[in-house]
Amino acid sequence: MTKRRIALIATGGTIAGSAASSSQTLGYQAAALQVEHLLAAVPGLDALADLQAEQLFAIDSAHITAAHWLQLSARLNAVLADPAIDGAVVLHGTDTLEETAWFLHLTVRSDKPLVLTGAMRPATALSADGPMNLYHAVATAAHPASAGLGALVVFGDSLYSARGLQKRDSTPAAFDADQYGRLGLVKGSHVHLYQRPVRAHGDLPLPPTLPPVHILHAYADLPVTQIEAAAQGAAGLVFAGLGNGNLRPDWLACLARLHRQGIHIVRSSRVPNGTVIRDGEVADSQHGFVSGDNLPPPQARILLQLALAAGEPDLQGCFDRH
Length: 322
Ligand SMILES: NC(=O)C[C@H](N)C(=O)O
Hints:
Layout: E1 4-12, H1 35-40, H2 45-48, E2 49-59, H3 66-81, E3 87-91, H4 97-107, E4 114-117, H5 130-141, E5 151-155, E6 158-161, E7 166-167, E8 175-176, E9 184-187, E10 190-193, E11 213-217, H6 224-231, E12 236-241, H7 249-260, E13 264-269, H8 284-287, E14 290-291, H9 297-309, H10 315-321
Parallel strand pairs: 1-2, 1-3, 3-4, 4-5, 11-12, 12-13, 13-14
Antiparallel strand pairs: 5-6, 6-9, 7-8, 9-10
Helix pairs in contact: 3-4, 4-9, 6-7
The structure holds asparagine.
């Protein structure tokens, strides 16, 4: 088989981090190294694929904004439309990787493989995890089985869908999708896929900007004034309720009032595993709420932003589909 051509887009993060000493895994400078430097640390990459590398951003992923998502997605749509390119890899900081991956999952219109990865140890550290994660990401992007799955995340030998992914640990085993699990494993150049995502992806339009949507996390004794403050100036609010997205009666009354004022309410949960069932604990249809299903609140926020920007008439249908 001819070698595949993979576009590699670097955005910064710890994978491009640099520290004064090789034992330093904290207090390093993220996004310090350019993509050529990262590629030079991975012998054998050129045997996996022909790479077309570019440095799009050089930032710690704490600084990622909607403008970066829009630019990155537009770039990937253009690159993957090129018949000479067979797939793409994005190098990204881990702190907001699950949000960028989900944004790309929803907005990149291509069946070619798209894989994100990063690292927990800077490139200068002993046993840096970036080089192997990068090798695995390129192997996955070059593998025909990775096509048509939406955005994938490869991290610590595991292969995940962007949907439902969360950073769960501050060690190199940083990511987990909990009960929804891994799609597969990657070991060296061997990619083993065991499951395929069933929800829609790559079908939401890229708007010029995203509407403001905020998240509020419930806690015992949360005063309604905090809910009102979180909704100030927002087009939508994701409320990460208790348990199954449960709402204290005064929270429910406040959210229903905000909905009547034109603010879209997604009922989500602060519980990491489980699904917020529509019209289960709360009469969502009566109050005009949208159930966030099992999406982590930051991913529910992005879906609401894209759905609102697209003028989606059936928000619940959009959540049920994705
Ligand atoms: N491990 C990492 O990449 C963390 C870093 N602060 C980032 O998200 O850019």
